[in-house]
Amino acid sequence: MKSDEHLDGAPARFWHPEGDAGRIRCTLCPRACLVGPGQRAFCFVRANRDGEMVLTTYGRASGFCIDPIEKKPLNHFYPGSSVLSFGTAGCNLGCKFCQNWDISKAKQFDKLADTATPDDIAQAAIANRCKSVAFTYNDPTIFAEWAIDVAHACRAQGVKTVAVTAGYITAEARPEFYEAMDAANVDLKGFTGEFYRSLCYAELQPVLETLEYLVNQTKVWVEVTTLLIPGKNDSEAEIDQQCRWFLDHLGPEVPLHFTAFHPDYKMTDLAPTPASTLTRARQQALAAGLKHVYTGNVHDPAGGSTYCAGCGHLLVERDWYRLGQWNLEGGACPKCKKPLAGHVAEAPGTWGAKRMRVLV
Question: What are φ and ψ of residue 256, in 5° steps?
């Protein structure tokens, strides 16, 4: 734990005093950091100030961008719509392959970021005609208090909210955090404990518990992403095991995205994931009984499009983040009338593939 005399921030929840000497225990994520006076937790943004926990990044963002919702990735949550996206700094995992390491591993970023209130963000979403606001780029679990407050402000204005997260959160914190969310994309980073321990400095089981909780005990729309890394988590055996668990515990219609790794952060010695690996993983998942399986970070219109879970008819055509054919009628397949799982509007959104920086 690093000592820091500059611990400005807002009061945090999800902690309790432990022992004497002013130490406190964080109960937000399974890491359960014991934080001494003037120290920060592993995530770097939660700190002990005079025996109480503060969130040092409350109200401070890494910047605001409007993205296509499919970039989160969410393919069954108002396809084609725009989402106002932002994150903060820090992370409660230590993934060696982090694709956003310049934000998630930042140590001074919380002193340099843009500032905004929850109402500011909700109003910015409305002004820019965004269907939703996404907490993304780094994990919103670590800035839960701010994310919850923003989500409540958005809900009051009819704006949806999305958590893009690794799902590394305790049973104590899950209900309050996810009650505020309308959708979540959860990174299931691999399917072995060894992968999580050696490459993420974390454990697999809490993520599986979060997924089961979300799908079976909440109304949050859930999609799952696995970044396939050559030689690390892309074997046929591991993908089969993951898909069997997925089918048994989450059901066949929760969307699963297999996305391509590119060398970054502490894993620059590996080659990018071949497109053929993603195609093979998708075929395995479909063969296992999953109905909505996607490929990402590669050009693959077939793997990016949505098909009816009943008859296989093309429902939403995608080329990268651009929508093509829209064959839904009242949110259902026009041929067999089976509703598409998720949340869809009567007509597709028109945001397209562009990304736009905005000031809040």
Answer: -125, 130
What are the residue boundaries of the structural domains of the chain, listed by start? 10-55, 61-358
Q: Return d(Cα 326, Cα 131) in angstroms, integer.
A: 19
Using 50, 70 and 90 to split pLDDT, how confident is the model at 103?
low
DSSP-H helix ranges across 189-330:
193-195, 205-217, 236-249, 275-288, 301-304
- What's the mean pLDDT in 302-310? 98
Both ends of the chain: CA-CA distance in Å?
33
Contact present, 272 and 264 (Cβ < 8 Å): no
Q: Which fold has domain 61-358?
A: TIM Barrel (3.20.20)
Which structure tokens are listed for 166? 């690794």
The verdict on pTM exceeding 0.90 is yes
Supply φ then ψ for residue 240, to 5 degrees.
Answer: -60, -45
Closest listed residue to residue 40, CA positions, set 1, 84, 90: 1
pLDDT in tens, 267-293: 788 889 999 999 999 999 999 999 999
Residue with tokens 């077939």: 302
Amino acid identity at 269 = D
Q: Which helix (H) or strand (E) holds 54?
A: strand 52-55
Report the half-sphere exposure of 174 (CA within 13 A, side-chain side): 22
